[in-house]
Amino acid sequence: MHSRYILVVILILSYSVGFSQRRSYKPPKKDFLGSFDDSQWWIGLHGGINVAKALPLKSYAIVEPITGGFVANKDYEGFRRIGVQAGARLDFNFHTNFSTSFQPTYTNMNYGYKVNYQWTGQDNNTLDLQYNHRLTLNYLEMPLMFRFDILRQQLKPYVQGGIGYGLLLKADKYIEIESRDAASGATNPIQNDSPIIGAKNLFINSQFMWYVGGGFSYDAGNLRLGAELNYKQGLNNITNRQNRYSDQRMIGMLDALDDMTLQNITMEFYCVFPMKFLQTSSFRRVKP
């Protein structure tokens, strides 16, 4: 009889303890970014190549046509001159498919344009001058990118977009002159090369940009390797309007910078390392 009572008491206590444990259990607290297991920080390096192009907003010139015998044309190159970029990146991956990335980058961009002048005199004698302008701009850029992974697998295709700020560090200009003088029925080409000219004062110190692009990332253990292709468009005029006619070297070369923005296509590779681990002894990282 006593053993029966004891059994009943044990059953009642077991039920009470189990009920109290179920009621006292609280799931891990989550915020907008989720719990500890729902996010990951990554840090690493990136680098690659780019091609740039200037988009003129308003054209300016030193020499204006005053007679019917004078013609002037200015033509900008397409995406043909290669530059390089390299920097660091800090990525934050949350809710599996979403990431943000801050990428301070040193960027070297090259673009060019040519200006043709032609004078026609008596007896159809002509003088042709072609000025080939090549410019190199070096910026410290600070883009903030927003990324969405299309698939949840080891090899992840993604799309991204963002905004950025660029600080001008250096600007150089190289001018190559080709002249062709047709007189007395003869054509005599003359080519003159000018040295590289520091041109930072012809540009303002800052530019703002927007980005759009995509790529692939691959998780190789704790490493994340990736490749991406991005298009970048400047939002503001980068020419210093106050100094447009102040450089006498440029005036002597019959050149005045147009108002312009920059377009840029970049291709680069990156490698990043995780910063959050479930077990530091075995380096088992968090996989959101």
Task: Give the helix/strand layout.
Elements: H1 2-24, E1 39-58, E2 70-76, E3 82-94, E4 98-102, E5 105-120, E6 126-149, E7 155-183, E8 186-193, E9 197-198, E10 206-220, E11 223-234, H2 248-252, E12 259-274, E13 277-279, E14 284-285
Antiparallel strand pairs: 1-3, 1-12, 2-5, 3-4, 3-5, 4-6, 5-6, 6-7, 7-8, 7-9, 7-10, 10-11, 11-12, 13-14
Q: Quick recap of the structure?
A:
With 288 residues, this protein is mainly beta. The chain has helices spanning 2-24, 248-252; strands at 39-58, 70-76, 82-94, 98-102, 105-120, 126-149, 155-183, 186-193, 197-198, 206-220, 223-234, 259-274, 277-279, 284-285.
Question: Could you explain how this protein is built, in words?
Answer:
The protein has one domain: Beta Barrel (Porin), CATH 2.40.160.20. 10% of the residues lie in helices and 60% in strands. The protein contains two helices and 14 strands. It has helices at 2-24, 248-252, and strands at 39-58, 70-76, 82-94, 98-102, 105-120, 126-149, 155-183, 186-193, 197-198, 206-220, 223-234, 259-274, 277-279, 284-285. The strands form two sheets. Strands 1, 2, 3, 4, 5, 6, 7, 8, 9, 10, 11 and 12 form a twelve-stranded antiparallel β-sheet that branches. The chain has a two-stranded antiparallel sheet with strand order 13-14. A hairpin with a 3-residue loop joins strand 3 and strand 4. The two termini are 57 Å apart.
